[in-house]
Design brief:
Helix content is about 0%, strand content about 55%. With about 110 residues, the protein is mostly beta strands. Strands 3-2-5-6-7-1-4 form a 7-stranded mixed sheet, with no helix packed on it.
Length: about 110
């Protein structure tokens, strides 16, 4: 896949803390103005080993990226048992890098 068909970026945990151990799941939501948001299925899962404060990623862009100028990239960090630990979002344009900050989920 060519580089122009991938979205590159980094994920950080709030306040510079170490990312907890778990799986980062990414999906896109299209921001299409008056037509409403279009959900794009999960595109990748990246593992966090719990030892670093940031992770780099490269994701394939969905086909919808050709028709939607701005996408909402959603990252969710889950433990191995599926418990949601943190979540973050970033508005991205195809070709621009994405930086996402994850914030702890409060139940």
């Amino acid at each position: 896949m060519a580089d122009d068909q991938q979205l590159r970026g980094t994920v950080r945990f709030a306040e510079g803390a170490v990312l907890p151990k778990g799986n980062l799941r990414f999906h896109f939501e299209g921001l299409s103005g008056s037509e409403g948001a279009q959900q794009v299925p999960a595109v990748a899962i990246v593992e966090s080993d719990g030892k670093t404060d940031r992770l780099s990623f490269a994701l394939p862009l969905p086909e919808a990226a050709e028709t939607v100028p701005v996408l909402l990239l959603v990252a969710s960090l889950e433990r191995s048992d599926g418990w949601l630990l943190a979540r973050g979002t970033a508005k991205v344009r195809p070709g621009d890098p994405a930086d996402i900050t994850l914030y702890p989920v409060v139940y």
